[in-house]
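Changelog-adjacent note: as of this version, every example in the card shows the full chain rather than a window. The one below runs 299 residues end to end.
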Amino acid sequence: RMGNPTVKALERQIAVLEHGYDSIAFSSGMAAVSTVYMALLNSNEHMISSAAVYGASRVMMEQHLSRFGVQSSYVNTADLNEIKAAIKPNTKMIYIETPANPTMDITDIQACAEIAHSIGAVLVVDNTFCSPYLQNPIDLGADVVLHSVTKFINGHADIVGGIVISKTKELNDKIKGMMFNLGGNMDPHQAYMVIRGVKTLAIRIERAQENAMKVAKFLENHPKIEWIKYPGLDSFAQKDLVAKQMKGTGTMISFGLKGGLEAGRSLMNNVKMCILAVSLGGIETLIQHPASMTHSKMT
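Full-length structure tokens:
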């Protein structure tokens, strides 16, 4: 738990890719998220978070840490005015996921960093949807970056893991100390598998982006599609912000069908090339319904 050379090799590798001081590898993405919460937030302190985040990240805060006096507000962080309006005297963290899961809304990382630092808070960015290949939040002012390495960084859908990259030694030490006590460390075999996956990160994302653009254009012109959000489309409302802070348009697509829930159920039950499953970032094309799957526990 205290250290392993294979795990350390991965941690150094990801810290370099994310331009951070150092990183800490975890047994899962949620082990990483939970440890960051517990290391950086005390009882009676407040966090502002993107409303559209990975479901368990929100459940952990609202249903569990709230029992110990940690407070949270969930807002549309793509609207900076909503962030400013949610600030309290005890706000100590702004936590964003960009692009958002599953709405694909983009939050301005640099602007959020400026807001956080003006009130003495830290900015934490879940960078899972982009990976270090497409976005480096620390360069834009973030203090802590985290990933579910289960997704793009590993890229083969055969391990579960997480990683946290800190901008400073002080933050890294706080989070590492909490990891030691909670015990959510990554094991050496996990680390070996992720190191293997990182070797093809650029190739995988470039090809997946090409494929995503083709799929997005097909869906945009399909008569049964009600709406679609993909950062690479000309119709994407935040394309200027995408160009400012991302080095590509990513591989994730969010869309809605005419006909609502029943139309969605029909689609899920009839896909052939796509696999009906949660997760993302592997070599397969996955499709899922957030409201009944990954985000079903959210109110």
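Structural remarks: The mean pLDDT is 95.
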